[in-house]
Amino acid sequence: MAALELRQVGKWYGGFEAVKSVDLTIEDREFIVFVGPSGCGKTTLLRMIAGLEEISSGDLFIDGERANAVPPDKRGLAMVFQSYALYPHMTVAGNMGFALKMAGAPKAEIEQKVNGAARILQLEPLLGRKPRALSGGQRQRVAIGRAIVRNPRGFLFDEPLSNLDAALRVQMRTELVRLHQDLATTMIYVTHDQVEAMTMADRIVVLNGGRIEQVGTPLELYQRPANLFVAGFIGSPKMNLFPARAVSVGNGAVTLELSAGRTLSVPMPAGLIAPGAAVTLGTRPEHLALVDAGPFGGIVDVVEHLGVETLLYVKDPEGVTTIVRTDDLSRVRQGETVSLALRPGRGSLFDASGHAFFHLSPT
Amino acid sequence: MREEKAPPAGAIAAWAAAFVMFFPILWMIITAFKTEAQAIAIPPLLFFRPVLSSFAAALEESGYVHFAENSIIVSLASTALAVLIAFPAAYAMAFQPGKRTQNLLVWMLSTKMLPPVGVLVPIYLICRDAGLLDTRTALVIVDALMNLPIVVWMLYSFFRDIPRDILEAAQMDGIGPRGQMTHLLLPLASPGIASAALLSIILSWNEAFWSINLTAAHAGTLATFIARYTAPEGLFWAKLSAASVLAVAPILVFGSLAQRRMVRGLTVGAVK
Which terminus of chain A is more solvent-facing, meaning fewer CB atoms within 10 Å of its CB: N or C? Predict the structure, then answer.
């Protein structure tokens, strides 16, 4: 039960600015995911919230109280580490009860809390084991259990699933979401995996180079990326980006000239763009449709049958690959020439500096 | 592959080198079982009837037990003192390093490069003025200080092998430095602490310079016990050898028992 507020929080390591003046409000009981490429500052930001890293500038408020100088254990936050960081010489029960034991809690209370957490995480049969006798997934559960036992105001997760195999990762993802619902506490989760971010988050914070690029719900980020970085980072397969130029503006529509002289008309209110401006048209793979004649197209280079859908990698005459998502009944074969058109009301337009200035919407 | 085909020349050389290094000790052990007459016989006797008379003489005349007791007390107490100081020092350096931690570590080691005789006079004077001459206390303190840099270094490298995450998890659990040291580092680094302690015991057992200079009959260790045999009455080779065997035997046995653990301790971080 913690609401957090970050005001112009920054982190310097010597002369290197790892986190640049981050402003962020995290609501009580929210599941927030920090996502970004490695080195973007997401883990540093989390560690500053945890209190393991000093805040160089700015303020951190937890439930309205300034917490910059509050020691980690007094912040009421529990952390789950990427490496699990279990105490190797203690049993599962010992690991989970250690904090309480050191705080001088009575034995019966420790036992009751440990058993409670073990029940939630199905760790009961493993309570007597040492960490080395556990699988990766079980160790991860113990690490979460250790956090639960402390009954924290909020949970901090630092890439907790990155050491697990793919199948287990998918399973743990849903378990964490369920846990969030059961415990009804704030969770802050760091990952570099945008799929984890999309599937778990209430809101996603996209970080790049120590700066927040965009904050929003998964669908907001997917449908209305604020800039080219977010457009490229969120979504798999990636958004197709076409360089273009606005040739004529007016009458609620703009005509874009794509490479090789092909043109495309997009409905858009007047005044957003000047004629002659360079823009980038971004289209998700599902924004494109196979048609008899359209502004995009080329030779099908690769066909990926994923079962529920089929991905086509279409190479245009300039050698640029466009990814198209079609249904499972697609009969298109490799080597065929196809033509593509933008589905009505889909796609985003970015200006020369990479900021989105218009998202088409399928009213 | 290569080892199978390698000629035994390398092995022979290694054995020869080992023999040359071991020879003085071997000769000392042999001499200890001779009579004084046999010990100074020229050419040296290789075959003789071993006797224990030199051991008996060394034990009876010179109070071996008293010196051995001093050696045991001094080496154990100085080791305990060194580990007690080094443990929190290494913890701070390994987990909360500052800008100058590396320099500090190197500086500490550099004190070991100083010839001990260089500080003989000041330390002698301090001990004299404190009334500590010929006391075990003086030797315990000096030995502990002499071994401290090595013990700190060993503990430091052991602590560096312990994942930081574990201590950070403890920090999140509200466990302060003292709790981290006693409940996490002590059990997790116990092999390292044991090998550092073993090395410290061996070093202070073998330490001769300070015990000869700071102690005499009362607090002398086995090193002074041997040194006393180079007496003005002349050298008694057999008795000297017997005394030396008595002095080094305990630590040799102890060392060989602890050898595997020591090697593990000294090579930690190098392998892995």
Answer: C
Which chain B residue's Cα is nearest to A147? B173
Domains located in chain A, CATH noted: 4-233 (3.40.50.300), 240-359 (2.40.50.140)
Tokens of B58: 């060394």
DSSP alpha helices (H): ranges in A246-326?
none
Closest alpha carbon within chain B to A102: B175
Taking a C-beta distance cutoff of 8 angstroms, is the pair A7, A59 a contact? yes
Does B16 reach chain A within 8 Å, measured CB to CB? no
**What ipTM did this prediction achieve?**
0.82
- The SS3 call for residue B52 is coil
pLDDT (tens digit, 9 = 90+) per residue, B160-218?
888 888 999 999 988 888 999 999 998 888 888 888 898 899 899 888 888 888 888 78
What residue ranges in A113-235 does DSSP mark as E strands? 154-158, 186-191, 203-208, 211-216
CB contact under 8 A, B173 and A85: no
Domains, chain B, ranges and CATH? 63-228 (1.10.3720.10)
Q: Which single residue is written with the structure tokens 């914070």?
A: A205
Of A78, A88, A103, the CB nearest to B172: A78
Look-up of token digits 């009954």: A151
Residues in chain B: 272
pLDDT reported for residue B272 = 32
Q: Chain B: residue nearest A74 by CA?
A: B174
Residues of A at the B interface, defined by Cβ within 8 angstroms? 50-52, 72-74, 77-79, 81-89, 98-99, 102-103, 146, 150
| In the predicted structure, residue B263 carries a pLDDT above the cut 70 | no
Look up the pTM and report it: 0.80
